Amino acid sequence: MNSLAAPVPLGGEIPARGRTGGPLTICFPFAGDELGGSHVSARGLMEGLDPARYRLLVVPEVPDGTIAEFFGAFTRTPDPAAPRRSFVPGARFGPGKVLRALAGVPRRARFLREHGIDVVHSNDGRSHASWALAARLAGARLVWHHRGDPDARGLRFVAPLLASRIFTVSRFSLPQGSSEAARAAQVVYSPFDTSVSADWAAMRARIVEELGCPPDALLCGWFGNFVKRKRPLEFVEAVERLGAMLDRPVVGLMFGDPRNTEVGDALPERIARVSGNARVHMMGYRSPGHEWLAGCDLLLVPAAREPLGRTLVEAMLVGTLVVATDSGGNPEALEGGCGVLCPLDDPAAMARAAADLLADPERIDAIRRHARLEAMRRFSKENHVRQVSAVYEELARG
To answer: Do 312 and 320 contact (CB within 8 A), yes or no?
Structure first.
């Protein structure tokens, strides 16, 4: 890395300089081709970084896929060692997968050197596995952005050896104890556009018209990938139980990419069995997510050990009430009375918590006002960009 010991320009800070003496070059590699919250957060960061100080390079594993299109406003180049088949998100890494990841390391290290990459910023487990060692061999700094469980083996055993800095999305996700990982880690909340607003009445009417459900139906939202940790089957049961408690129709809306599933046919089969006063619909992936979220009356989050779900914060910003499990980063997102917590793996308790909240209009109004103010204070894009860019420049100084 070049030294940043140049004179400070009058009225400004030391400009960030990379290997070539110009802006720092930051590489964002992405594995697979299923969009998720990590991609939304990464794009939020990239949009906020000063182009005079940072040159950004996106490296999608699938050069003409969904992720490449999502980052279409930025310079992109294909992964030089793209695998014939992508790793499954969230799946455990065994020896065979480790060997597959290591096979691409020499080509990726050469790629990083040729492009003069100063910092590799990896955003999920698959990208850590594929790019961490390559970054080390190429002499680039590695920011390991951990969005998962604090007990993850990569975080505990690999990140301390290869990462220059570890970001976690919540206090829950911080590595525990006095390990090297704990000393190198810091909490950086994901970035949100806290100025967002949505016409909730128009979006609600749009959903009601599309589905043909009664205008007085209670719309309960689910947003995310259909992985076991997020408990999609428990969401369906909570909707069904809530329908049995209320004297109005209850409709569950499951927004997400159906390709990214760990539950297979169990989810559509369970949806088909929903009875009584409730219905559940698969809505697919839709954007912008906060507008569809605003059309929901409730966001139900039955997830287990979720690091910090983006949809909780987005719901706080657009005025959608949140009922979530007391697990993972959910209490952290909703701390201070920004939503309602209920026990994990208890759909009946989630339904009761939702019914109790709906019966208290004064509490609803208080939660909505407080939640938006708290989300604006804690989760702004400006705070995120300021924290991350400070680390980039610290790493550039060596």
So the answer is: no
The per-residue pLDDT of the chain, averaged, comes to 90
Q: What are 125-180's pLDDT values in tens digits?
A: 899 999 999 999 999 999 999 999 999 989 988 999 999 999 999 999 998 876 77
Give me the DSSP letters along 212-263: T--TTPEEEEEES-B-GGG-HHHHHHHHHHHHHH-SS-EEEEEES-TTSBSS
Structure tokens that stand for 367 in this block: 């939660």
Max Cα separation, the chain? 72
Position of tokens 């949505």? 198
Sign of CA dihedral 331, 332, 333, 334: positive
- Output DSSP code: residue 164: S
Locate 333 and state its tokens: 């997102």
Q: 311 is written with which tokens?
A: 């949809």
Which phi and psi (to 5°) does residue 185 adopt?
-105, 150
Comparing CA positions, the residue from 389, 336, 392, 396 lying closest to residue 366 is: 336
Task: Please say if the pLDDT value at position 96 is more than 90.
Answer: no
pLDDT at 94: 59
Beta strands across the sheet bearing 24-30 = 54-60, 24-30, 119-122, 141-146, 165-168, 185-187
Helix, coil or strand: residue 340 = strand
Query: Of 95, 28, 102, which Cα lies nearest the Cα of 67?
Result: 28
Number of helices and strands in the chain (H, E)? 17, 12
Give ∠ CA 270-272-277 in degrees, rounded to 5: 100
Structural domains in the chain?
Answer: 24-191+380-396 (3.40.50.2000), 200-378 (3.40.50.2000)
Handedness of CA 174, 179, 181, 182 (dihedral sign): positive
Closest CA relative to residue 257, chosen from 291, 300, 227, 302: 227
Whole-number pLDDT of residue 123: 96
Determine the Cα–Cα distance for residues 347 and 300; give it in Å rounded to an integer: 10
Tokens of 278: 């409730």
Cα gap 271→234, rounded to integer Å? 11
* pLDDT number for residue 88: 56
Tokens 């970054």 sit on residue: 135
Cα separation, 202 vs 208, whole angstroms: 10
Sequence letter at residue 316: M
Q: Give 251's strand partners.
A: 219, 279
